[in-house]
Amino acid sequence: MTTPSPGNSPAATVSVPLYRLAHSRSGDKGNISNLSLIAWDKECYDVLVEQVTDARVAQWFDYRHPARVTRYEIATLQAMNFVLEGVLDGGVNDALNLDAHGKSLSFHLLDLPVEVSAKLAQRLPNVPGDALSNA
């Protein structure tokens, strides 16, 4: 849900899900999940660098009990990579869950809310059927 900040100033911000600013892919190796996060453009990347920290991602995935979350910035690609250790229930051969490879974790990351300027929110890509597409 888009949440306007108090006031109608040009500095007003809205909360949008991360998928409005970036796309993501996931990979796995043993009990480690690797999540790439690629911004749509430089302005979106700047928001990611500021708000999508390793601490915030660790908190967002707290239900998976990560042992450690490390963020790697790849500024030339306007992307970042997160390594989440200990989140795959032992890895593919040990996990009894339905997503032993952790492929759905990238989609969960994309639900992370971030604050953007109202001006930026207006130009972000629309998602068909998304209640936020007119934010």
Automatic annotation (TrEMBL):
Pfam families: AtuA_ferredoxin. Residues 16-114 form the AtuA-like ferredoxin-fold domain. This is AtuA-like ferredoxin-fold domain-containing protein. InterPro entries: AtuA-like_ferredoxin_dom.
